[in-house]
Amino acid sequence: MDDVGTVYLVGAGPGDPDLLTLRAARLLQGAEIVIHDGLVDPAVLALAPESAELVSVAKRRARHTLPQDAICDLLVREARKGRDVVRLKGGDPFIFGRGGEEAEACRIAGVPVEIVPGISAANGAAAAAQIALTHRDAASVVSFVAGQCKGLSEQNWAGLAGKGRTLVIYMGVKTAPQIAEKLMADGLAPDMPLAVIENACRPEMRVLRGPLAALPGLVARERVKSPALIVIGEVAARGDAFVAALAAEAAQ
């Protein structure tokens, strides 16, 4: 096929446009068409030229603008028109972003594809809350899991969290009660520290802390909404609040 465009699977990072990679920003600024997820911040989309076509394929827990197969077909169809396609995804395309599925669809169709990594939601949220996902005194293992996966009660999460480990849960707001119950049933202590980070790297960001057993009540009481991440492990008791407490103690 002649004049086939390239599909760029671009990580939009956790929200703040200043956290885009240079490659991502340059692709956006020269974009002909941007096919974006719903969680991409408007300030990031504003980097695209006025002439660019912006197409939302937002997903919201069982309410999809387009099903995944249709998104893949859209990418291929637009590239076959000779257009370079910027497929913009929150965080990193290959961490719970279905980037693997879209890259495979392009390759099967003979459409060139390039992956442009982004700062993941986990890395961005942890940095904004000053929570080190690994720490010599607290954690040498990090695991990422999807909190809305099918068959949550059947998943074996034993060993993913506990002493010396950090567990980061994506998409876990709606299933917070089941997550807490599941982790405690798999042996995690009810008083294990956790942090819920809502709207990371944005002006309205909140960091809420508590023990594992209190997770369902915390989410309900504070009316936590997506996007939000749950960080579970000893490192969650550190971060910005921990440093502030140490500074206050030192000042006495």
TrEMBL record:
This is uroporphyrinogen-III C-methyltransferase. Its EC number is 2.1.1.107. Residues 6-215 form the Tetrapyrrole methylase domain. The keyword S-adenosyl-L-methionine applies. Keywords: Methyltransferase, Porphyrin biosynthesis, S-adenosyl-L-methionine, Transferase. It comes from Pelagerythrobacter marensis. The lineage of its organism: Bacteria, Pseudomonadati, Pseudomonadota, Alphaproteobacteria, Sphingomonadales. GO terms for molecular function: uroporphyrin-III C-methyltransferase activity. Pfam families: TP_methylase.
